[in-house]
Amino acid sequence: MLKAMKSGKTYASRTEATLGGQTIPLEFSAVPLVDDSGEIIGGLELVLDITERVLYENRLKEQNHTIREMSTPTIKLWEGVMVLPVVGVVDSMRAQHMMESMLTKIAETYAKVIILDIHGVAAVDTAVANHLIKITKATKLMGCDCILSGISPAVAQTIIQLGIDMEAINTRATLSDALTEAFLMLNLEVNKKKQ
Amino acid sequence: MGEDYNTSVTVIKNNLIVALPAEMTDSCIHNIEKTIIEKAYQKNIQGVLLNFSMVTVMDTYTYQAFENITRVFSLMGIQTIWVGLNPGVVFGLIDLDVAINTRIKMAINLEIGLTLLN
Lengths: 195, 118
Known about the structure:
The complex is a heterodimer.
Chain A lengths: L10 E9 L2 E13 L5 E10 L1 H21 L3 E4 L2 E8 L3 H18 L3 E9 L4 H16 L3 E5 L3 H9 L8 E2 L3 H11 L10
Chain B lengths: L7 E5 L2 E5 L6 H17 L4 E5 L8 H16 L3 E5 L3 H9 L9 E3 L2 H8 L1
Parallel strand pairs in B: 2-3, 3-4, 4-5
Antiparallel strand pairs in B: 1-2
Helix pairs in contact in B: 1-2
C-alpha cells in the first residue's frame, strides 16, 4: 500500500483480515508525507477495526428495509377493493414505493377500486399533491379507479390555498365515505338484515 | 411490404380483440392502425379491445399513437377499451410524464374489458 501511495495521492479502502479464526472488517487509509520541497519522504498508514460500524450499518439497512415494507401496505378490503393507508411523510422515494406496491397488487388481484387514505399524512404540499395525482393516473392506466380519502379540513384548505388542481381525482373526506363510493362503483349495496 | 408485425385480430360478437406484440416500431403501429380501422369498418364492429398484456415497452409516441387510434374509433362511434397494461409499462409512462387521457377506458384483464363493453 505504501508503494501505491508513492504517487503522492491519498488512498482509503476497506478490507477484511482473518485474525485467530475471526474475520474482522478493517478500514485503512494511507497518506504520503511530503517535505517543503514537495518530495515524498515517507508515508503514514492508518488501520482501523470497524467491526461495530459495519454491524450498525447492516442493522440500519435492515431497519430501512423493514420501515419501507411497513410503510406501504396494500390491504384487500373487499372483493375488488384495496386500501393503501399512508402515514407520515410522503417524499418522492416513498411515493414511488407506494406506486410500485399498488400497481403490482392491482395486477395480482385484479382490483377495480383502490382507496388511498391520507389521513395520517401531516402536511400536503404541491410536491405531495403531484405525487398523489401521478399515482391516480397510474392506477387509471391499469383500469383501476383511485379514490383519495382521509382529507381533513386543514388539508383541504391548504390544497385550495396552494391552488392545486385536484379536480381530476375522486376525493372523499373519510374512509367510510370512500368505501361507500367504491360500493357504488361496483354496483354493490349494503342492506340491514331483516328481523 | 411483408407482414412484419405479429398482431392477432379476433372478432367475437361484433367486438374486435387486438392482441398487440411486445415491441412495436412506428411503421408497425401504422400497419396495425390501418388494419384494425379497416376491419372495424367492414365487419360492423361496436367495440374494440386493445390488449397490451404482452407489451413490454411503451414510449410517448406509442402512447399517443394508440390514443389517436382510440379517438378515430370514437369518431366512428366505436368504443375502445385498453386492456392489461403491465405495471412496468405504467411505471415507465408515469416516469416519462406522459399526459394521460383519463377519458379512455382501461381494464386490467380481457374479462373485465368485455364486461365494460357490454
